[in-house]
Amino acid sequence: MSTEQTDRPTTDQKTAWSDRPTPTTAEEWLERAAEVSAILAVDAVERDRAGKTPYSEVQLLKDSGLVTLLGPVEHGGGGQTWETAYRVEREISKADGSIGQLLGYHYLWAWAVRFLGTPEQIAAVEELYTANRYFFGGAVNPRDKDLVITSDGDELVFNGRKTFSTGSKVSDLTVLEGVLEGTDKHIFAIVPSAQDGIVYGDDWDNIGQRLTESGSVRIENVRVSWDDAAGYVNREFRPLVYNTLNLPTIQLVFTNLYLGIAQGALETAAAYTRSTTRPWPYGGDNKDSAVDEWYILEAYGDLQSKLWAVEALVDRAGERISAILHGDREAVTARQRGEIAVLVAAAKQRAIDTGLEVSSRIFEVTGARATASSVGLDRFWRNLRTHSLHDPVAYKRREVGRYVLLDEIPEPTWYT
After folding, report:
1. Spatial separation of the C-alpha atoms in residues 78 and 326, rounded to whole Å
2. Domain 241-406, CATH homologous superfamily name and number
3. Mean pLDDT, residues 289-308
4. 148-166 per-position pLDDT tens digit
5. DSSP labels for 146-170?
6. Angle at the Cα of 337 from the Cα atoms of 332 and 340, rounded to 5 degrees
7. Residue 175 belongs to what H/E stretch?
8. Fewest Cβ atoms closer than 10 Å to its Cβ: which of 18, 287, 293, 391?
């Protein structure tokens, strides 16, 4: 994929947001997200084809303030909940799954300090990224070997390679994770992305999610103060169940990405059907317009009903996990965590199955001419199919099944 930079936002694009007050309610933030989504939708097909590094798209997320949605109000952030963050991510994903993924991952990595950090670390990181509207990426891929961390006096030194590092190239801050040499201690740290020790492979060239900059990265002698090792006090970490909520949280990021892509597919197809699709003239019950064709009406009714059902389940999961994420970190129990993970697993599998059906069947109700590359309906299926292979959905079904039959909650892993 080309790593050539897209055009930077114009002055008019930047000032369009600067003279407007920061949203203060969930509804206002969702309206802001809808505005950003509409901007992204205008040239989504062309940008998907070009596959350029999404500098301007990330700048749009910054200029609009969406990157600060979860940040403290006192530092210029939205002070909103994860329930709203998921819905904002979903809205952006309707227009562009790649940018929706980048925003969802940003929210996850911006919250990493809350999952793991000390109160002092939380305060420092949240002020830093919120006041500066910094964007997060992450070099954390459990399927690869852990980064090797060595201790050098008051510093930690990270080295290694990760196959995937979504968003890091367009980020201001990158989350690193590795294991301290000679121990079993996993350490997370947040570092500046623009440094010689982070070398991007520029090798992301997949059929979908083409603008996520999810290629490989080499970490070469990146130094971090021991004071910045997330959650470590006197070089020791005190674990909480809350620490493990990062996994169901990101799994629900995935789920909202899939749902948003599917919603965008159906909305885009419906607009095409209204404007362009022709009725079938050989059925014996000829109609003047495609919107009056019985099989088209039946298909849209079926697909929309399924999406509404998925949305209800996803929103239920978002409400439940948000309450825990914004609650007392010390109070979270293994049972609470496990039941949330099961609910997220159920929502994820339904979003994948329904999303793949929607993004495939839309061609049946738009017609042969809708397969033209210029229409770009294929991007929805390509995006959803690509990312939904992140981890096998069959394991999510098994987790739900064991909960139903055996009352077993899933053990925390890197994917659950």
Report:
1. 14
2. Butyryl-CoA Dehydrogenase, subunit A, domain 3 (1.20.140.10)
3. 97
4. 999 999 999 999 999 999 9
5. PEEEEEETTEEEEEEEES--TTGGG
6. 130
7. strand 173-180
8. 18
